């Protein structure tokens, strides 16, 4: 049996006491500072499947995509929607794929975005990711001066939608009015279709706020003082003829669709002003397609 002299035993006791004391002090500091290292989930209000099949001049075409179990695991969430819309119901006038994915309660995550994933599938990037203004008419949405975002102090924008069940008009809070509404756009080409360009545009709604950056999601949805956390990726894809005005045409199509889509997405997401005021129940979030 190995024996240690008294000085080594005393040093061991001192180090053990320091380790235990540090752990207790860390827990006390976290509680005193109201820091939440582990986020609790906040349930989505409505299934993403309740997003209307008609959005302004856009109408759903085809069947909604259902991912395999392996693809759902890769996506990182079972709460998603992938649907195609055609302008005036006619794919020849314009067709776009809408992809929504909802995440909640995660400590950290790396969102799947076109500029990271499409290249791995064999597509060639012809224009790097860049941020542009979301081409919607912000003036169509007012602001509610009585409901402000606690993180920014700015009032939430307000839109009105029709409840898909009751058919009643419903007030919907949109991301705050003081922050720029931008989305990230990347352009790719498929070697098998050299005459077209594939546009992928996305932004994130995280804890009631909006960002075009997959990196900024972490600072919005994982604020240390927030007990709850969620974010939703809103992505729109479209393949257009390779013409000099292809990006301008894509931007116009995106604005036309997003003007009606954004309020409907916010209707499904948690009311963050309510979370800020009282905090929701941390019920497990069921998979909703």
Question: Which helices and strands appear, and what pairs or packs with what?
Answer:
Elements (H helix, E strand, L loop, with lengths): L5 H27 L21 E2 L2 E4 L7 H7 L4 E8 L7 E10 L9 H4 L6 E10 L8 E7 L6 E8 L6 E8 L5 E9 L2 E14 L2 E3 L4 H6 L8 E12 L4 H23 L3 H6 L12
Antiparallel strand pairs: 1-2, 2-3, 3-4, 4-12, 5-9, 6-7, 7-8, 9-10, 10-11, 10-12
Q: Which bin fits the share of residues in helices?
A: 25-40%
| Domains, number | 2
Taking all residues together, what is the mean pLDDT?
82
Distance between the termini: 63 Å
Low-confidence stretches: 22-37, 280-289
Beta-strand content estimate: 25-35%
Distinct helical segment count: 6
Oligomeric state of this protein: single chain
Give the radius of gyration. Answer: 23 Å
**Helix and strand string, N-terminal first?**
HEEHEEHEEEEEEEHEHH
Class based on secondary structure composition and strand pairing: alpha+beta
Number of strands: 12
- The best one-word shape is globular
Overall description:
- There is one protein chain.
- This protein is α+β, with helices and mostly antiparallel strands and 289 residues long.
- Helices cover 25% and strands 33% of the residues.
- It has helices at residues 6-32, 69-75, 114-117, 216-221, 246-268, 272-277; strands spanning 54-55, 58-61, 80-87, 95-104, 124-133, 142-148, 155-162, 169-176, 182-190, 193-206, 209-211, 230-241.
- Strands 1, 2, 3, 4, 5, 9, 10, 11 and 12 form a nine-stranded antiparallel beta sheet that branches. It has a three-stranded antiparallel beta sheet with strand order 6-7-8, covered by helices on one side.
- Strand 7 (155-162) and strand 8 (169-176) form a beta hairpin.
- The longest helix is centred in the first third of the chain and has 27 residues, at 6-32.
- The chain starts with 5 loop residues before the first helix and ends in a 12-residue tail after the last helix.
